[in-house]
Amino acid sequence: MAIADTSSISGANAASAAASTASVSSSDNEQRFLKLLVAQLNNQDPLNPMENAELTSQLAQMSTVSGIEKLNSTLEGLVNQTGSNQALQAASLIGYHVLSPGNTIHTSAPAEGEDPKPQAFGVELPGTAADVQIKIVDGTGKTVRTIDAGSMNQGVNAVTWDGKDDAGNVVPAGAYSFTVAATNGGNTVPSTALTFAQVAAVKQGASGLTLELVDGTSIGLSDVRMYL
Asked: What is the pLDDT along the chain (228 residues), one digit of tens a residue?
């Protein structure tokens, strides 16, 4: 029997061919099992016939194998559907600003006579912290502003910076970073710095879906804490 060239099968055709092959394989197995069972019954020793329990056991084994194949097929369909839903969910975030792990803040020069636009970011804590201190650092590593945020609760906490240094002067426009020091009763509380960035595109890669941000970084869909 000639073997067909499968190099031309792709996309939906490949999926259809695979499903058809699996179906035929399952059907063939059932037919083989039934033929063997009938042959075994026809050729059994009349003086020592097959026990009912043995027959029932063989039928149960075949039923179990068939059920597992159907369950695998159902799970595969659910996984594919979940992947499609995630892609649609991720695509809907394009153009939105998402809050995700990061510690970079970008400021712009305010209009003459106006205060700078407040910069929003966040701090995520695994537990309550009685004292949280945030330091805004410029490109040279110099601390330009220290914010005593007080106590913070477990989860995501919103923070804003007015774009001014400790002396109340507007800092130059540009990129700044921030560090977080959280404590509770003298014990350090781990913290995760969070910043907002706009989603520019969605990318499907070997590791799954990623969101491409306008600042050039990539994050996973699970990294998104909030969007607006």
From this structure: 443 443 333 344 444 444 444 444 556 666 666 676 666 666 666 656 655 556 567 666 656 666 666 667 666 765 555 666 778 888 889 999 999 999 999 999 998 889 899 999 999 999 999 999 999 999 999 999 999 999 999 999 999 999 999 999 999 999 999 999 999 999 999 999 999 999 999 998 777 889 999 989 999 988 999 999
Q: Which domains does the chain show, CATH number per domain?
A: 14-91 (no CATH), 97-227 (2.60.40.4070)
Amino acid at 113: G
| Dihedral class, residue 208 (left if φ above 0, else alpha if ψ from -120 to 50, else beta) | left
Tell me the pTM. 0.65
- The three-state secondary structure class of 56 is helix
183-187 long-range contacts, Cβ below 8 Å, gap at least 24? 183/129, 183/130, 183/131, 183/132, 184/127, 184/128, 184/129, 184/130, 184/131, 185/130
Bridge partners, residue 147, by sequence: 134
Pairing of strands 208-213, 104-107: unpaired
